[in-house]
Specification:
Layout lengths: L17 H4 L2 E7 L4 E6 L14 E6 L6 E5 L27 E6 L5 E6 L4 E6 L10 E4 L10 E9 L2 E8 L11 E8 L2 E2 L4 E4 L2 H4 L24 E2 L10
Antiparallel strand pairs: 1-2, 2-3, 3-4, 5-6, 6-7, 7-8, 9-10, 10-11, 11-12, 11-13, 13-14
Length: 241
C-alpha cells in the first residue's frame, strides 16, 4: 500500500504472489535500493515457495520479478503431505524448522535472519543482488532450563542495536512455570544476557477462559480474551526466570 494512501479507493499493488514466494513471515526493506526481502516460514497446510524452507526472496518494491536472494542452510527437511490427515505430520514443525523473522541494518549493509531449525542468527551482505553464503552465523544462546525448549525467532533493529527474541516452550516439562519469552541484544558477534524476560504464571494457567471461576476460586478473564503475562520476580510470579 502506498504510504500516502487515504480513503477507501487506493487499491494495493501486488508485488509478488504465492507461486513466487510460498508461505513467508519475516519481511525486511532495504530503502537504499527499494528492495523487499521475504523469508520462508513453516506453516501447516501451506507450501514453501520454490526455494524451500531456507529461502529468502527479494522483490523490487516498484515492481518486477521476485528472485531468490539466498538459501539459509540447515533450515529443516520436513515436507508437506496435504492428503494425509490434513497435513497432520507437519503439525509439530512450525516454530522448529524454516526461518523466523528477518531484519535490515539501518545503513542497509546487513540482513539478519533467525534460523529456527539450527537456532542460529545468520548475517548476510544485503548490498548484493544475491548471496551465495552468509557473512557469519552465531548460535543464539538458550535462555531455558532445558536447551531443547528454546525457540528463537524474533528480530528487531533500532538505533544500531540488534534485538533477538525467543520463547522457552516448556515442551520437555509440560510446566507453565517453564514458559517464558526472552529478548537479548546482539553486537560485535556476541549476545548479551537477557534484557527482557516475561513469563506466564500458574495463576494465569489456572483461570477459566469462559468467564467462570476456575478451581482455584479466582475469577476468570472475559470470554475470548487471553490474560497478559507478568514480569518475573513479582510476588505472583513463580516462574523460573
Amino acid at each position: 500500500m502506498p504510504f500516502d494512501a487515504r480513503g477507501t479507493n487506493s487499491a494495493p499493488a501486488q508485488v509478488a504472489n504465492q507461486g513466487a514466494t510460498g508461505t513467508v513471515f519475516g519481511l525486511a526493506y532495504r530503502k537504499q535500493d527499494k528492495r523487499l526481502f521475504s523469508a520462508a516460514f513453516a506453516k501447516r497446510l501451506t507450501n514453501y515457495g520454490p526455494g524451500g524452507p531456507g529461502a529468502i526472496y527479494v522483490t523490487p518494491a516498484a515492481g518486477g520479478a521476485t528472485t531468490l536472494f539466498t538459501t539459509v542452510p540447515n533450515a529443516g527437511g520436513a515436507t508437506h503431505n496435504h492428503q494425509t490427515n490434513f497435513d497432520g505430520a507437519f503439525y509439530a514443525v512450525p516454530g522448529t524448522q524454516s526461518l523466523g523473522d528477518i531484519d535490515m541494518s539501518e545503513d542497509g549493509s546487513e540482513l539478519y535472519v533467525v534460523n529456527m531449525a539450527d537456532k542460529k542468527l545468520y548475517v548476510y551482505d544485503a548490498t548484493q543482488p544475491t548471496a551465495a553464503a552468509a557473512k557469519a552465523s552465531y548460535v543464539i544462546p538458550s535462555a531455558c532450563p532445558t536447551a531443547s525448549d528454546w525457540r528463537p525467532g524474533a528480530l528487531g533493529v533500532r538505533d544500531g542495536v540488534v534485538y533477538v527474541g525467543g520463547v522457552c516452550s516448556g515442551a520437555s516439562t509440560k510446566k507453565i512455570a517453564d514458559v517464558k519469552a526472552v529478548v537479548m541484544t546482539f553486537s560485535g558477534g556476541s549476545f548479551s544476557p537477557p534484557v527482557l524476560t516475561r513469563c506466564w504464571t500458574s495463576s494465569v494457567a489456572g483461570r477459566s477462559t469462559t468467564g467462570r471461576r476456575a478451581t482455584s476460586g479466582t475469577p476468570g478473564p472475559t470470554a475470548g480474551t487471553t490474560p497478559p503475562p507478568t514480569t518475573c520476580g513479582t510476588t505472583r510470579t513463580p516462574c523460573r526466570c
